[in-house]
């Protein structure tokens, strides 16, 4: 019933009637022509379409299917944890920690851990499990998107930073602490939006009155332990497949555009000159240019000593894995400091490519109408995480 209600609310947002042709028609055409015209003027029209197709194809094969595989495994794990009461135990243990800080039930920490060990969409598999969502009120479920994204690829990013040198161990730890701060801010802002979106009233929320009774008991599957384990894994994995299919449009459309705006041309293997070949992930590098123009604001906030460092958080908007590849060369060139590593870890983990995953994740949560709010909340959370890392590093060093 709740999912149907959310779907109806989303449909009401996207099905308003307006004049067949109005001012926004011409504004949209103008933006479309200017946008694609500018990209085509940089790389050529033919190359532009080739890059778009190759990037989308590579994202489908190497990103979407990877996320789907991860979601299947996370879904199976989620179902097992629910079936044998582990999530119920976690909810009891961490309720006093998660509720005051995040405003979410203790069970939500399970999703955060899952994304820390893997990537952002892992939390969606938990959100599809009714034995997990029973601990949440309806306005709290969309906030799981922000919570999970704030810890995406955390373990991989942290170990990568530490592997760059022993002097980066402390900055990486500071970055983790700062990511927690950013996640709290992001989730709290998101909860403010979701309460307004759902017209949340504590006194009228049925779940508030029945939550205690619902969480005192849990449903289990019929059969012996082996049958229950097998059924839980298969059903949880099936939810992961459905989630993987649901995120395809968001990842392919949004991430393709973000990649084109983030990365630059390829390098000629013979001359070393920049060249457009139509390969996947080539682009016009517009976002780093914008970041460099804003360096007079960003550098005091994050403590960057070089304008090149802006490229890491900007690239993290699209893919933190791609941003990580920048770090070794930054270290070789001597353009970053341990402070920058702390900020990189905090912002890379908090943002972790959220522009390319938030759309699909919110769609999978049946909360498409809140996508823009989730992005705004997480943008603020990531900036706060980076600032926290800078000031914490200054304090501790």
Describe this protein with a few key phrases.
single chain, 397 residues, mainly alpha, two-stranded antiparallel ribbon, 73% helix, 1% strand, globular, disordered N terminus
Outline the low-pLDDT stretches. 1-13
Residue share in helix: over 70%
Q: Kindly state the mean pLDDT as a whole number?
A: 84
Order of adjacent strands in the largest pleated sheet: 1-2
How many distinct folded domains?
A: 1
* Biggest sheet features: 2 strands, antiparallel
Can you put this structure into words, describing what you see?
By secondary structure, the protein is mainly α. The protein has one domain (46-396). It has 21 helices and two strands. A two-stranded antiparallel ribbon has the order 1-2. Helix 3 (45-83) crosses helix 13 (248-262). The termini are far apart. Mean pLDDT is 84; it is low at 1-13.
Blueprint (SSEs and pairs):
Elements: H1 2-14, H2 23-43, H3 45-83, H4 86-102, H5 108-117, H6 122-127, H7 130-133, H8 143-149, H9 154-163, H10 169-197, H11 206-216, H12 225-246, H13 248-262, E1 266-267, E2 274-275, H14 286-293, H15 295-302, H16 311-316, H17 320-324, H18 327-333, H19 338-351, H20 354-364, H21 371-396
Antiparallel strand pairs: 1-2
Helix pairs in contact: 2-3, 3-12, 3-13, 5-8, 8-10, 9-10, 9-19, 10-19, 10-21, 13-20, 19-21, 20-21
In short:
The chain has 397 residues and is an all-alpha fold. It has helices at residues 2-14, 23-43, 45-83, 86-102, 108-117, 122-127, 130-133, 143-149, 154-163, 169-197, 206-216, 225-246, 248-262, 286-293, 295-302, 311-316, 320-324, 327-333, 338-351, 354-364, 371-396, and strands at 266-267, 274-275. The radius of gyration is 22 Å and the shape is globular.
């Amino acid at each position: 019933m709740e999912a149907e209600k959310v779907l109806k609310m989303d449909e009401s947002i996207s099905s308003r009637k307006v004049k067949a042709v109005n001012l926004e028609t011409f504004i949209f055409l103008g933006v479309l022509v200017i946008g694609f015209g500018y990209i085509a003027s940089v790389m050529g029209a033919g190359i532009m379409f080739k890059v778009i197709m190759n990037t989308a194809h590579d994202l489908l094969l190497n990103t979407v299917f990877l996320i789907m595989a991860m979601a299947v495994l996370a879904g199976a794990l989620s179902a097992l944890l629910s079936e044998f009461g582990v999530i119920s135990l976690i909810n009891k243990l961490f309720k006093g920690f998660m509720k005051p800080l995040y405003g979410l039930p203790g069970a939500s920490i399970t999703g955060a851990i899952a994304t820390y060990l893997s990537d952002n969409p892992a939390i969606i598999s938990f959100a599809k499990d009714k034995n997990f969502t029973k601990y949440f009120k309806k306005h709290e479920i969309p906030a799981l998107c922000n919570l999970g994204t704030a810890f995406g690829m955390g373990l991989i990013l942290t170990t990568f930073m530490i592997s760059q040198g022993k002097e980066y161990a402390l900055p990486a730890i500071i970055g983790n602490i700062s990511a927690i701060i950013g996640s709290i801010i992001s989730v709290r802002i998101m909860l403010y939006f979701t309460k307004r979106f759902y017209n949340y009233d504590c006194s009228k929320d049925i779940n508030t009155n029945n939550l205690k009774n619902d969480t005192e008991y849990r449903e289990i599957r019929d059969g012996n332990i082996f049958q229950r384990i097998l059924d839980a894994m298969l059903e949880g994995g099936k939810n992961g497949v459905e989630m993987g299919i649901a995120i395809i449009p968001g990842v392919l459309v949004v991430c393709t555009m973000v990649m084109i705006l983030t990365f630059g041309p390829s390098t000629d293997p013979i001359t070393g000159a920049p060249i457009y070949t139509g390969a996947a992930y080539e682009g016009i590098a517009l976002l780093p240019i914008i970041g460099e123009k804003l360096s007079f604001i960003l550098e005091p906030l994050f403590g960057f000593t070089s304008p090149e460092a802006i490229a890491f958080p900007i690239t993290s908007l699209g893919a933190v894995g791609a941003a990580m590849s920048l770090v070794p060369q930054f270290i070789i060139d001597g353009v970053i400091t341990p402070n920058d590593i702390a900020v990189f870890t905090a912002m890379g983990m908090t943002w972790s490519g959220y522009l390319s995953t938030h759309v699909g994740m919110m769609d999978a949560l049946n909360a498409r109408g809140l996508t823009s709010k989730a992005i705004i909340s997480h943008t603020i959370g990531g900036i706060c995480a980076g600032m926290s890392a800078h000031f914490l590093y200054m304090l501790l060093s």
